[in-house]
Amino acid sequence: MKSVTAIPPAPCRLAFGKFELDRDIICPCDYRDLNVKEFGCCYCALYVRKDVFEGKTPIAPIPERRPLMKQTRAYGGTVEVSIEKSTETTAAVAKESSKIQMKMWYCKQCGYVCFREDPPYVCPVCKAKREMFAEVALTTEMQG
After folding, report:
1. Domain 101-144 classified CATH 2.20.28.10?
2. 3-state helix vs strand vs coil in the chain, percent to 5
3. Which part of the chain is CATH 2.20.28.10?
4. Local structure of 25: helix, strand or coil
5. pLDDT tens string for the chain (144 positions)?
6. In angstroms, rounded to a whole number, what is the distance separating the alpha carbons of residues 52 and 72?
7. Cis preceding linkage at 61, omega within 30
8. What is the DSSP string of 29-94?
């Protein structure tokens, strides 16, 4: 019997363990290219720009780009948001967002196609920005 090994998430983030929920944080994660471009390295510093590698630019803390709703959905919990000295529990929002709606996206520049909730920030093939992705509407008809 063959054993199946799960694809590990990026080492800098906790994973839920379901591919659909962890897709954006599988290393190299969706946020890598933006972080390397802006800060010189990715969130966990596995990927760095040449100037950082050569020691010309120090590694600085990088803010989390993964949306709070994706983090909440992945952990199946609630989010407490502090708004002007009051705390709201948004369990209903987290429960509603737990429904994954997969869509098909294609890069208008190179034709790369992916099936996921949101388009990638950067095309993994041609490095086009997120704005270059268009949603493909799929419809099926049954004739009988």
Report:
1. yes
2. 25, 20, 55
3. 101-144
4. helix
5. 554 455 556 667 777 777 777 878 888 888 888 899 899 998 888 889 999 999 999 988 888 888 887 777 766 655 454 444 333 434 444 444 445 577 888 999 999 988 888 888 888 889 899 999 999 887 767 776
6. 32
7. no
8. PTTHHHHHHHHSB-TTSSSB-HHHHTTSS--------S-HHHHHHHHT---EEEETTEEEE-HHHH
